Task: structure prediction
Amino acid sequence: MASGSGRGYAGGGREGGLHAGCFRVLLYLYPAHFREVYGEEMTRFFEARVARARAGGGGYAVLRLWTRTAADVMKTATAERRAGSHRMEDKRKGRTIMSSLLHDLRHAARRLRRTPVFTLSALAILAVGIGLNAAVFNIVDTTLLRPPPFTDRERIVHIYQDSDDGDPSSTSYPAYRDMAATTEVFAGVAATSSANATWEMEEGPRPVAIEYTTASYFPVLGLTPNRGRWFGPEHDQVGSEMVAVVSHRTWRTQMGADPGVVGRSVRLNNQSVSVIGIGPASFNGEAGALITDFWVSISSTPMGGSFRVSNLERREDHWYQVKARLAPGVTLERARSAMDGLARRLADLFPELNEGRDITVFAHDEVRLHPSVDAGLVSAGMGVSIVASLVLLLACANLANLLLVRGITRGPEMAVRQALGAGRGRVARLLLLEALVLSALGAIAGLALAAWSVRLIASLPLPTPFAGLDVGFNYRVVVFGVLVAVATGLLFGLLPALRSARTDVVAALRDEARGRSAGRAVSLLRGGLVAVQVAVSVVLVVGAGLFARSLANAERVNPGVDPARIVIMGTNLQQGGVSAEAAPVVIDEILARVEAIPGVESAALTTRLPVQSAGTTTQIVDGYDPPSGTGSVELPFAYVSPRYFETMGIAVLEGRTFSAEDRPQTARVIVVNEAAARAFWGGDAVGGRIRAQGAEGAWREVIGVVADVKVNDLQEGPTPMIYYAAGQAGILSFTIVARTPGDPVALVGPLRSALRDVRASLPVTRLIPLEAHLGDALRTPRMIAAFMGGFSLLAMLLACLGVYAVVSFTVERRTQELGIRMALGAATSRVITMVVGESLIVVATGVVAGLLIASLAMRGIAGLLFGVGTADGITFAGAAVLLLGAAGAAAFLPARRAAAADPVDVLRGQ
Result:
């Protein structure tokens, strides 16, 4: 190693004259590591002494200097070789390298401080890029990657009864009890069911997310409450005390972290529920990042209404998610075999309900939220991560171009450094350190921006039925930010650093003196970086354009109702203290009061509005054999009162709708929509029969067919749906719909007053125009369009900044050339056209590449678009024109500035 270092030193090729060359030979008396560290410094010092000796005493003085120097070198070299050891050599070398590195680091910081405009611009670009990626990673990590805090989670499995379509779905509570009885396979089995509730607080009612859970839930997961206790076996029985455990986050944010909460009562759905514990700090609930406010015992199901209690005995109602812990020594394959056997037994015992319905067991790491939604979550997470990475790539390309330009302008400085003995590695290290310092500062700013944005995201009204998201910052995000910062610094700093380190000393000094432009290779590199920025921008702009056109198409969809003059008001009789027996009378009084309001043309109630995701019911259609082989179909449903279809503007196509005579003691009837009539009765549905699965003999006759409405979302096709008569069922939670000839907003106050006049305790859970409700259905498409639009705008700004920087630098380096052209008579417009045209060639190359990439990349979002193809010509053409126009404007500004200069002043170098 020592000899290798010596050869590298001697072969440096530096020209220091005869004295310097002889002195370098003399330095070979020192050890190799000593020559490598101090050789150049000693040589320069000796050259300076020779120059002073020659100036002061001529050749005799130089000879005396050589004599003293040779004697000193032989003496110190001998001592150095005798006293040195490999360990001391390494320590001195390490100290010297560290000292050199710190010196370069201080120099890089000073250099960045002297160019505040460049530094602040670079930090802003990095903060946005790194911050955006850190925020996205935090959400994706919390939702999809971060492992749950369960004990021995590899022993936990997910169990699902299949739906009528054969897909893993939810499980009935009686089936859960059958699974829990399989003690030879499972050490414990737990069931949970998510729901919404109203928490009556001093400042007013607040919607909360709850989970009805069995007492086995925390033991199966291996969790313990932070304070208090968990449910006991007695809490799995209706009739026991109503108890709840509050989640740690809700306790901290809504209850002030008061330890005295344990033992107190809260009012959920107008029911008093005792808080017996506080959940662990690391666990939010079944949905991970989606916050659960309270875990509620099975004994507390009466707070959800009579249907929630009866659901505990109904095998046809699949509302529960089931987890189990494998017994010691039991494998996943054995658990699956046991559940296959249970599925066969249930099919034999309850053929109408369970024939053809399998029970599927998943390992814990195979499911994040639910098999039916995990694929969509992963796709969404990958999509957001890719978009954020593209923005970071844009930032890196932009900064690489800026540093490359900056390195060219610093060519003479780098040439002088090399002329004074600095190696190419030292020069490259200096420039790379500047990039790493920038990325480190950008990471600090980016993480601060990400922390702020995560808090903002958590407070947004996201399109979920839950109260919010828990996406708090943690060390994983910080580590990710640091790694991104290092990778980013290397990505945008390495290429310019290596390019500047290869600067030819003589050529750099000569070109600086002559004001020449950079070489062809550098110009191609700068143009390539600009083309990359433009290509990435095109991909993002195309994506934003497709989502915008998809949103526009969705907004033009006919929902099947006339929403212009309708206002909706939700309420819950149970929360208002109304018993099930008194509910029919109270409902009739509410409708009478509403219809008596001046300006109300008609009013009705419904349990499900158009474009509203809600539950389904499993039905047997007389004479229809479904392809699934289960004999039943899943149908969305709603309970509606007379005049509902009239109020909503839904056309009656055949037969009749409900009347006041349709009561519990009369024949059970039903209305279906046109899609159901076509699917199950070939279009002739009136007189057909349908009944709930498991309710043998309880047939309902179809008395009418109405026009289709959008059931779950605006983008869906015709969806079969059934309507029940509200007068033939006990309804406690519903929505009043009222039509007016005037402004529906004017009915808001009178509707609220009418409800309070009937019963002051009745809550108003929702009170908005129907158009606002339909607008909420577009919240997700609007969020996606806004998300993509913001990123595409940022990409365009970065791309235009890159074009502007490159053109400005090129114009500055070509000042004399352009001055000569104008002095020889070239028109200003011609000079501008030439400069802009050359820039647009590079931009056009990036546009073409971006369009080709977009045509492939957009295929992955086909399922998210509505009414527009992934190869939409208008969108692609618009993106190309937009990028070319924006880039042309960015190139025009420096070109116009250069063309406006006085040719005489330019040629004089002013």
Remarks:
- The longest helix spans residues 32-83.
- The chain has a mean pLDDT of 82.
- The chain has four domains: 2-84, 163-357, 375-555+779-907, 566-776.
- Residues 375-555+779-907 form one domain.
